[in-house]
Write a structure and sequence with these properties.
Helices cover 31% and strands 19% of the residues. The chain has 330 residues and is of the alpha/beta class. The chain has one domain: Peptidase S8/S53 domain (Rossmann fold, 3-Layer(aba) Sandwich), CATH 3.40.50. The protein is globular, with a radius of gyration of 18 Å.
Amino acid sequence: MVLRVEEDLYQKWIEETPSWPELPSLESILSRLQDSKFVGSSEAQAEDPEGSKYPWGIERVQAPSAWAVTRGAGVKVCVVDTGVDGNHQDLRVLGGYNSIDPAASWQDDHGHGTHVSGTIAAKDNGVDSNGLEVVGVAPEAAIYAVKVLDSGGSGTYSDVIEGIEWCVKNRMDVVSMSLGASRGTPALEDIVRAAHAAGVVLVAAAGNSGGAVGYPAKYSEVIAISASDILNKAASFTSRGPEVEYIAPGVSVPSTYLGGGYQSLSGTSMACPHVSGLAALAISRGARGPSGVRTALTAAAQSLGLDRNLEGNGLVNAAKLVGAEEIALK
């Protein structure tokens, strides 16, 4: 039985942003320090974020402080993107699917999906050219790659829908979608609702338009993520609106890249995987289903003093999320 007929649009789902924008001047850093606006980081880290051991976003969400409690082992995170470089020495990819061509590989031929995956779950053994130990928020979570976008970052709605459907059928815990479109479709909404009903936690980038939140992030079943910079301000490019639930680091974020390398990129695409990794940590500590994960994330979030349409519930603190703070006090 045919329920409906829709146009299957082919479009670009990932918006490129330069890797160098919005780097703060020394004067702005000092001014910001005087305002004491840095959340979840020490003053020393704020003064010299590049001197930290780990990428600044990993430090900012306090992931290292959570690892004594959990590193996300046993949680399955599916990256719905351009694929993932399964040969990268810092990534543990347990499988995947190519919805563009099911007979073809899910290997990344763009770089975007590999970068996203590193922020979620890169193993703590990779050092980039700046000496940073590139590691993910949940370094022991299992990554699965679903390739729905081609080498140019484009794809059809049906490819994205089929990719999400694969995640549901294969019982993924978290689906990370650093992609977006300016419009939704009934079929996309249907699969999002089905995934949510099946207990899958859906996390998506809000978008880089500086305007309204895109799709699928705009759907209420999806956790929409906006982007912050190193000064805990909203990135100028980040989309905004009442759909935004959390904000996360998204400017000049170092992570894994093609060919065993590392790259620094910017966008809500980079913010989204921070929260996907945090969701994995929450699940590993007992949070169940979309509502359970949302409750845990919100309880561990702290406002950056921004408009709610920009930050939602705020920046999530991983140590608080997994109970590391309480354990340290005992």
